[in-house]
Amino acid sequence: METNAQYLESVRKQFLYYKILGEKAMAQLNDEQLFEAFNEDTNSIALIVKHLSGNMLSRWTDFLTTDGEKSWRQRDDEFANPYASKSEMMAAWDKGWDCFLNALNGLVPEQLSDIIYIRNEGHTVVEAINRQLAHYPYHIGQIVFYAKLLKQGEWDTLSIAKNKSGNYNDAKFSREKAIRNFTDDELDKLNK
Questions:
Q1: Residue 185 needs a FRET pair 20 to 30 A away by CA distance; which of 9, 79, 115, 154 works?
Q2: pLDDT, position 186
Q3: Are 29 and 151 in contact (CB under 8 A)?
Q4: Is this prediction's pTM over 0.70?
Q5: d(Cα 39, Cα 85) in Å, to the nearest integer?
């Protein structure tokens, strides 16, 4: 049971880390850049946010008792009809993340082997979490990469700065060995 509790704590930190990465990337752009797409086959950051929020609301609303693909979800619309403003986009971002994190934070270790459904396909709760642990960072990576391309001016790095790996490693190896999650330091840095 201790392993299940450790797993839940670890994934909570992982998801929070990626949430903050996305927010820090988007914060470096002006409002217009959030809605810019390079071509018809590319989604703007705003549409990626719309998709993430739609997915989170569908997957995690009553996720232990209802199918993760809700009848009210309009997935195709998540890639069209962008938000009217940055504030509307960020409200949707927060709503999706709040729904997801509340569901995740409400779990107890004994529920990890429970079966839930997504499009009538059974998943353990662990499998459902892992599915999203691959899906959400995939899109956060798109947001970060796209933001770096769109940024006009200097980019505030969100990871180890270019040509600074040695300094980063020196700082890590100067500390005593300990069991800790890599996100502990990263979340502290990103929250500053």
A1: 154
A2: 65
A3: yes
A4: yes
A5: 20
Q: Which of 147, 132, 141, 134 is nearest to 97 (CA)?
A: 132
Q: Are 190 and 21 in contact, with CB atoms under 8 Å apart?
A: yes
d(CA 155, CA 63): 38
What does the alpha-carbon distance between residue 100 and residue 179 come to, in Å, rounded to a whole number?
27
- Tokens coding 170: 């020196």
pLDDT in tens, 73-89: 999 999 998 899 999 99
Of 4, 22, 184, 35, nearest in space to 97 by CA? 22
CB neighbour list of residue 12: distance below 8 Å, 6 or more residues apart: 101, 104, 105
d(Cα 20, Cα 26) in Å, to the nearest integer? 10
Give tens-digit pLDDT for 16-35.
Answer: 999 999 999 999 999 999 99
By the 8 A CB rule, do 183 and 17 touch? Answer: yes
Mode of pairing for the β-strands spanning 121-124 and 115-118: antiparallel
Cα distance between residue 90 and residue 77, in whole Å: 17
For residues 22 and 92, is the Cβ–Cβ distance under 8 A? no
